[in-house]
Amino acid sequence: MGAWEITKKDLYLILRDKGALYTLLVLPLVFVTILGASTGKLMTTEDETKLVKLGIVDENNSDLSQQVVQALIGVGGLKAETAENRDEARLRLQDGRYNLVVSIGRAFDEQVDSLELFDVLDTEHGKLTEGLKYLRLQVECGSAFVNVGELVEYVVLAAALKSIVPQVAKKNKLVAMQIERALRRHQEQYGSETAIALPSPKAVESGPNYIYQILVPAYTVMFSFFLINIMANSFITERNLGTLRRLQAAPIRPIELLLGKTIPFFFVSLVQSALLFLSGKVLFGMSWGTYPFLLLPVIISTSVSATALGLTLATFVRTQSQVAAYANFLVITLAGISGCYMPRDWLPQFMQNVSLATPHAWALIAYQQLLTQDHPNVLVVWQCCGALVSFGTLYFAIGCLRFRNIG
Question: Fewest beta carbons less than 10 Å away: which of 28, 94, 102, 192?
Fold first, then answer.
């Protein structure tokens, strides 16, 4: 009897265990499908419910202020509407009907009339150093947008300047004549529409949905390590039945025995990862990146690390309850530390550094390179694969040293 005979035996047992197959193959597919269907369009602007909801209060109610309103409505990614007054807008901001509120004060026209051409051409040294405050414009953000309030103010100021600059330029006849000629040329070349729209995020709409490039590999990595639970249970079952002791007494080296017990789960892990990536492609149209063939070594090295960790756990636990407790703790904790629950870029720098102590993080870095970069750094991918194999080697060595304790 050798490692291959043990592998065939365990593969047969795994295929007969419908519960294990459901947990390792079907459950990840269902989970990713549901999660993808419910959050997959989060970063697109095609679905109106996913647009940033903007409320606009125009207390000035002049032609110029209406131009600013229209400029804001024209910003891509926004669902803008007007509100009767600030109190109503703030109420909608509090209950979530608005994400942002822009208020145009009654003195807006007067403030614009006080501007000189220098002020709008050099906003850092003229009267507009105060920004929106000088123009009597105010931006209020909902709780989810507090951290990007300054960025929102820049967008609103840009929309306002689009309407203000021609108005201020009319004070200088020479500049006004030059603007008029430029507008006339624009009309002759592009038609009657002279307004230059602010750029809208078309790249997100037309390209593959970016969130799937993060979501699918993250949960693929997480579920790869789910098998440590079933793998440890397999060892406990054979130990309780006495099969493991008979195998130890057979004329086979311990390392062959451990390889024979580990390889079946390695194959299952490969199939699991392949199914998840295939479902991402078929169901959600995710891209496999510029070099799809490089996904294979990442999948293989991740599976090596996951199955070796399962072997290590199997040599430490003694009962089914210990398996459930330790395995669940490891799966949940390692996935949380590494960035499987959210993009690693969202983690604080300290946590990103800590996560490098987990194999999950190295797998995620490799997938990020391959799936989110137009020109991935292949050297980084191979370094990550090397780190994953190193984790696997370390775990397997610990498992071999601990193996004498589970007989």
Answer: 192
Answering whether pTM is above 0.90, one says: no
Q: What total number of domains does the chain contain? A: 2
- State whether 251 and 400 are in the same domain: yes
Instruction: Tell me the CA distances in angstroms from 319 to 242, 322, 325, 403, one per residue in order.
Output: 14, 5, 10, 15
pLDDT in tens, the chain (407 residues): 556 666 666 666 666 766 666 666 666 777 667 666 655 544 444 455 557 788 899 999 888 889 888 888 887 777 888 888 899 988 888 888 888 899 999 999 888 888 877 777 777 777 888 888 888 999 888 776 767 677 778 888 888 888 887 777 766 655 556 556 666 666 666 555 444 443 443 333 334 456 778 888 988 898 888 888 888 888 787 777 776 667 666 667 777 778 888 888 899 889 989 988 988 888 777 888 888 999 999 999 999 999 999 889 888 888 878 887 888 888 888 888 888 887 777 788 888 889 999 999 999 999 999 988 888 899 999 999 999 999 999 999 998 888 765 55
- Yes or no: say if 240 and 314 are a contact pair by the CB < 8 Å rule: no
- Which tokens belong to 249? 């007494």
- Structural domain of residue 93, as residue ranges? 48-200
Mark whether 24 and 68 lie in a shared domain: no
Half-sphere exposure in the Cβ direction for 321 (13 Å, CA): 0
Quick one: 107 and 246 in the same domain? no
H-assigned helices in 97-172: 108-113, 117-121, 149-169
Q: How far apart are CA 336 and CA 305, in angstroms?
A: 17
Q: Do residue 341 and residue 381 come from a single domain?
A: yes
- Rounded to whole angstroms, the Cα distance separating 125 from 105 reads 23
User: Radius of gyration of the chain from Cα atoms?
Assistant: 30
Judgement on whether residues 98 and 229 belong to the same structural domain of the protein: no
**Quick check: helix, strand or coil at residue 342?**
coil
